[in-house]
Amino acid sequence: MFARTETAMFHEHVWGRAAGILFLRGRIAFCDRTGKPGGSAAAPSCLIAYGANNAVILRDCRLEGAFVALTRQAPNRTPSLFAEIA
Known about the structure:
The protein is α+β, with helices and mostly antiparallel strands. It has helices at about 10-15, 50-60, and strands spanning about 20-25, 30, 35-40, 45-50, 65-70.
């Protein structure tokens, strides 16, 4: 999804619910069905992990970017780093 961390959607569905976020380096590039390069995403993108197991998988994947581990907190709370991901 777009890494628009300030949006209401991000606050409602990611902050306080996700176990981790991988902020991808660069913009996602698209190809047509033949593999011919097309355009790129209009904004930075990130991948969201829900659940500790999925966060570990996302953290350990080989995609370029920065992984941020999160704790799940009550809605409207600022997320904090999640030290329990092994």
